[in-house]
Amino acid sequence: MEALRTVIARLFSDIQDVPTEDVDPADKLGNSYYGQRLHLLHPTGGAHGLKYQSGLISSRSEYAILASEFVRACQTGSMAEQLKILMIKYREPPLTVVKTSHLLTFLHHLLILVPITSTPNVPNFPLSQLFEDLGMTLTLRPTQQFPFAYQIWIMNLQFMLSCIKEVAPQALYNAGITTPVVLGIIKHILLELTRLPIEVNSIQQKCFDMGKDLLDTFLLKDTQSERSSASTGSKPAVIPKVSYYDIIFSFPELYGHFLHGSMMPIRNETAPSAYPQPSIVNYRIWQATLQYMIASIRQDVKLLDRIPTLMAINIIKHVLREINTLPADLSKSESRCLNSGKELINLLLLGPHGDGAGVVSHYDIIVALPDVYGHFLRGTFAQSVHWTMEKFINELGKRRRHLAFLMMPPDASWPLISQMSRRHEYNDLTTRTSYHMFEGDLIEFVKEGNSTGIETHFRDMLFQRASMDEFRQLTKSLTITGLDTSQVRKAMITKIRDVIRCIQQNSNFERRQESSKEREPYNPATNVRGEDITMLIPDNIDLWELMMETADQLYSFVTAEFFTYEDILQDFYDLVYQYDGKPYPIGTKHQMMKDNSLIWLLLQLFHIEKIGSSVIQKDFEGDERLFDKLVRLYNEEQILTKGAFSLRDLALQCAINHQQVNIKDRTNIKQRHPRVTAALQYAGLCYQVQAYFSNHYYSKATDPTVFCNLSMQEVMKVAMESQLRQNLVANTLYVYLVPNKVEIGTLGYPKATFLKGGTLGYKLLDFLNVSAKHRLLQLIYKMMLDTEAGPRYQAASSSNITCVSPHVLDVVYKLLYSAPCSAELMIKEIFDKLRRCDKLIKTRYESKPEAESLLPDHTVRWLHTILQLLNHRFLRFLKHSSLSSGLLHYIRYSLSYLDHRQVYQVLESFAVNIMRMQSDAKVLRSLDDPNREKPIWFAESEMLARTMVSSIVRLIKTRGQADIRTEQIHRVLSNLYEYRIEWSEETLKFFPPAVRSFYTDPHSNNHNIPLRPQVTYAKIQQMIQTNKAYMAFLLQGSNEKERAIKHFFSILENQSSLLPMIWTLALMRMSTDVFHMPSVRKAMLCIPASRIATHTIDLVDFILSKEAPQGDIQVNYSCLDAMIWKHQWISFTHVVFALVKGSGNAERSEKAFQYLEYLLLKSPEFSRRVETFTSLQFSSKYWAEDNHHEKLMTYLAQFPEYSEFEAYGMKDFEQTQHMDPPTSPPMPIYFTNVVLRFIPFFDVIINRLIEYEQPDLLARILDTHGHLFQYHHYPLSFICNLFLDHYSSPTLHEPYIKKRLLRLLDFTQYEFLPEAITYATDEMVGAEIFGARYFELVFHKLADNLSPQKCAPKATPNLPERHFREIGSPAVQGIHVALLEVLLTPTPPETVCKYILDLALFRGDRHIGVQALTIHAIGLLISALPIEEYLQPIWDELMSLITGDQYLTEISEPCRLVSLQRVIAWIRLIVYMMLTFLSTCKIRCGIPQNLDSESVQPQPLSDVTNTAILKNSISVRLSKAMVFPYIFNDYTFNVHNYSTNAANSFLTLFHSVLHYSSLDIFDQLLEFLRRLRKDHSLKTDVQLLYICAMLGPILHRTEKLNNTDAVHTDADILIELMHMVKQVSIRMDMKDGWTTQAQEQVFDFLHHIRAQFVKSPELAAQISDIIKSMNAPIAQRLSRLVM
């Protein structure tokens, strides 16, 4: 230790480093300095004899002595420890140049004594520790305490460099110079170099050069040394290298932004070192860093495999950011920095060989660009791009644009069919997260009308009369994503504009002859008569239903506070006026001329209390700004035309009259608003209408005829009054309906009384303003339907009135249809009460004593009234409403427990109609609700369970299984009925596989459900013979046996025997009149109402069984007739259903059809009822019938109907005998009767006779009773579903059957083509009338019905009003009509598809393509047609197109994966010739390497054809290049520019078909892709790109396959795609860095969807194996897809 102290003392004691001469330190440390001071370096053989200069130690021998003493000191301890102490002493301040010189000289001699050797087991010099200690002195930040930092930096680094260069690598390794040490040194040097200022002096430059020299030693290979080493076989004399990317990984303090992308230091101009490194501001660091990064890759190509893509992307982003900070005018150093950055990007992008096998893909850079240049919108980035990078960025932008066109269909303006759309259709392209990078393109796409958006969704929903609930649900889902209800308002304004334009186009604007009385002022002294007032009514008054519908929607949105009156007024104003207050020129797109319809719509809002009494009142009290805008919308010329309409053209006058009490200074209003002068000329008419209404209607409101059968003139006067005064008309009409004069009527039963009032026609109710409709509904609901205690009357002697007037109910449903949006709240409240009533029934059933009724009489009466209203008048409304799928939840307990048989009859019929009306498979989710308290839906009724199964079958066959798992379907089926349901083979063959497997698969849950015990003839015989009590009670009415018999039949297991026993006894006595009727009634009452249908099925099965007595069939018929009609023990509809329930063997079916034939065709009972019903001329347009009640009472007087087996003791609904037990309180009969209840079961009969192939019986039944189908609530839907569900049936395609089925429709209520009507009504007409022109008209008509802009007005005035049609949505009804127009033809599906494709692909004599909406109409219809028959020709055509189209079967334009300056000559020629249009399709794959370098000579043309597939003439290439972009262009652009092509058109059609199809279609798509690949039909890159364009827009839907139990998933599709990529790439065999335009787009596409490749390890492994089997360099380019 003493020796060590001596060494330290002699080396460092009393050193004064004060310069004694005026010499620049930089000069002292120049090259000559190093050349003369080798004692400061590692010792070499030539170091002897050098001169030394030292102030403390004067001779070389003294350093040798000190070194020797130090070595001796180390014998007692390790040299590392001793050296550590020495270095600590060295670092003690002051740290001077002399002190450093002494240390280095000492180390020089020490290394002579203790050399660094590679000999093993020999003590080695601790070089790594020495470097570490020296590193602590290395800094480029001179301070007052450390003024010689630069000199010491140079000296120490020079010493370290000499050690590294003079020592063998192995020796260095033995001395501890390992990779971590090297990394530590490099990191320290790098960090210090960044501290140098941007502008340096000479010594700072030398410091930088010294640091870079050391970094070069570690990071750059000595190629000359390597070559010599390779020639001699020896290793180069350098240490093992580290790559610069290792430094990046290990140095997050400096390069964290490369690793994570978010650790970006904030720029600070005053502190350059704070710049993200490397900073292009410091060109030395920039150049050095990029040089090392480039060299690391070029020195070790395998390094690319270790560089993560994320890090490479961050590096490129950093380079691009830095380049973007350069000035426009570049210096030489800045140019060199720019070139280095470009070279690095090219290397990372294209790889060292320029073949594209780099670290990142073009797609990765495209995705990263917004992080560099900001948000991309409207074709530009938020930040400008440096001009030197514009070409590169533009090329990437083109690639992104191409990718956008792959991911977006050629046209995605698919109309939303709100009442039929599947869930995915509500999520347009703009809502998909994978499309964020195409936001700018999407906005442009939507703006141009080539894609849907939120506004278009709302527009379609408004056009299709969607419910307010749908708007709320969609708006709520959008609000979560940051959107607001302004989109609804925009859509509302768009609809208003379209509707007004539609009416204007059909209006007559010629000037009319004006009457002299029109402008006469009103004289209060005169008595105004009706003939004194002439209301102007246009010829196109039928179109006003569009305005009434729009007004209802607008009123509802404003009431619900979606938007305000002020907003709407401003929007209207902006429709008409420009910003400068001038009207828009006529014909301006999206604008309109002034129209009084706008004022009429605003007038509807005046009657909203919070607007009329707040907003408008305050405006009149203030500056009248809003009123001024309203007046400016007035068109004074409109009332002078032949198309004038008083309600519309006097709307401004009505508005002024409505607010007259709020208008200040009315006398001067003309001065304040001069434009109002023209309107006030007609104000006298308004006063006349008010006076006339008061005298003629208001004062006579209790007259039941005053509002009957009004002419259109009178209707308009009342409607005008509703606009003039708040609530007056509504109050008057209510008094008219419910007068205070007591005149009582009955509803069937004498105790079912109501207060007689007048009737109101639907025309009057339609033309009332929205507020009057709403007010009248409120009054009726509050007084008649709001309370379950019964209606409330004002009449003094109304205590014996128990029921609501049928005329009031007529008004209710007419108003609900006329104003569905504004009345939605009332509908909700009714269903809420229905649900509460249902739960009350359950609660009472579980807790009530036996003798009590479940509900009070008034509650039962309310329930019966509402159920009749819903079942007979509201089904059309409910069918396509948002309530439809959940309706069974409102009556689920009532179906099991309700004990009032008359009400249950209506309830059961309603349940059947609910099931048969379902139009969406989401009802399955509703039935599978896990929170329901009722495990078995229809435990008591086999009929209801079978009906539900049939509905599920129909839904799945017509709408597809969607994303509903088969397991869920089976779960629903098993929860429908408590016993196993069996089906015949004839019926099962029409079941879809998911349902059929439940009933046929021996492993399904169905086989775990028990069979219901059957009632056998032997059992009944035994009961009768062994127990005479049955006969004594039923035939003789023995009181002694009553209790025992009633107890026996009150047990559920015994109830199924009652009806077969009665039947057997009747056959034994040959008559049903032998029974003791009161006893039979008592026994029948033991069976709950909910189980009667099931036991009727038991009876029919008993009658049809083999064991049943086979006596005289006529006796059987007569007994059955008596039980149904005379005694009314069983229901006719139950018997009919039991006969055609769909199960049983062939013998049972044959007998069943015999009984069915008798009941419907031979028995006089039902026929007489039908004849009477028909003779009364009930109107199928029930809304137009004001005397329905009177007709129904006439029918029931002749054929009364009872529900509690009391027919024997009743006459005309009055008891003629005492009833024990007493009958339940009678309920009012508003609509129900056996003829109408039969119609839903008529559907079942038709289905079964087709399934069992009974065409003759079906034809006779249709001929006899087909006219009843006009009373069907949804005949069009039924016939459509029948044709779809049973399309494979030969019976259905028999012309005489098909035509009879078609004639069930009332063609006057639908818009069918004349050819279709002729075919259906003329037996002699065949397929010859259906040619290509017919099918074209079908699709064009459907497209018109889908277009919100065209508004789908009535084709003829005879059609029903839109809101009263079977389907209120013109789009949905148009789809059903078009479906049937296709299906009714005898034309084979192949021919139909040929006509379709000829139209879509403009084949034949067509020269231009059809509009996109027509393509979508075709796609929508194809997706709805039977998939097997109509879709296969589409796949065949697609196969033919892909394999045969001349433009798809040729490769696209070749290009090289090199920098732009190496683009070959012939590509330059094509660019020059086609600059005008190929600028949108050209793909460049790299960026210029040198900004200021000489141009590189192009390769010879022979290189172009070194790949066989590229051998084509320039003319052929030019032709392909011209057509190629239009294949993937947007469809509408092609149509408008006459550049349509078959491939593009088919792609548009294909995406429409898939968009509107269920997920089931993807199985067929996968099979198509497999067939395409296995047939080796794919040969070119354009074909492959076409496949990508097919799949791109639908991949978001294929992901849902994973949520189903589909055989195939999206993984299968992705695997097929990658096999195709391999197949095409191998066939093309591109070499030497060649690629093609299409191939590059395919690669971008694959990278865009790569997230789907790694969703599971198994899929990733499969994809990886496929990629590895591809040719190089494709395999390398795609390898990172699954990393």
From TrEMBL:
InterPro entries for this protein: Mediator_Med23
Keyword Nucleus: yes
Alphabetized UniProt keyword annotations: Nucleus, Transcription, Transcription regulation
GO biological process per UniProt: positive regulation of gene expression; regulation of transcription by RNA polymerase II
GO cellular component, one term: mediator complex
Pfam families assigned: Med23 (PF11573)
ATP-binding found in the keyword field: no
Localization annotation: Nucleus
Family: Belongs to the Mediator complex subunit 23 family.
Protein name, as recorded: Mediator of RNA polymerase II transcription subunit 23
Native source organism of the sequence: Umbelopsis vinacea
Lineage of origin: Eukaryota, Fungi, Fungi incertae sedis, Mucoromycota, Mucoromycotina
